[in-house]
Amino acid sequence: MSGRSLALVILACAAVLLGSGCLAGGAAWSDADSGFGGQASSPATVDLEQLSIMELAEEVGARNEVPADLLLALGWVSSSLSPAAEGHGECTPGSSWMGLNSEQVARASSLTGLSPEEIAHQREASFLAAAALLAANREQLSPHADGTADARWWPVLERWSALGEAWLEQELAMSVFTVLQR
Description:
Blueprint: H1 3-17, H2 31-34, H3 53-64, H4 68-79, H5 102-112, H6 116-121, H7 123-141, H8 154-160, H9 166-181
Helix pairs in contact: 3-4, 3-7, 4-9, 5-7, 7-8, 8-9
């Protein structure tokens, strides 16, 4: 168990022992708990803006049951894990830290409740959006894929770009798996 997980277990036990409970009256987690609209939060609210990129991938991946290393590899292949430069659409058709295209941004906005502007410009929102998209695609294409970045994620990655050309979609999946193997 990681130190962070142990700390969460200790905190939860202390809350129960003190009689406060984690959620008084069985209240549901609200959008405010996650720091962004539409995402359920873990019991210990995490300020995503304060996390390193590795910690962000781990947190967001855990929330969506998506492997953190898969998120990072996809971000590296799609955008080199940096936001696209404004006014240079000829270089990449995507935007945001995760290199999302306009259709992905629109779909992620509906899945997460985040605005397209947040997804396009905020690192944390971009990761939340990508993880939500991967999780939704996993449910449709590879429901047995879990928190391990393995071949079960191949169909999800193939569909990621939705370029309409099988060889291009397979190339993207191969590029992500190549990064994962480094």
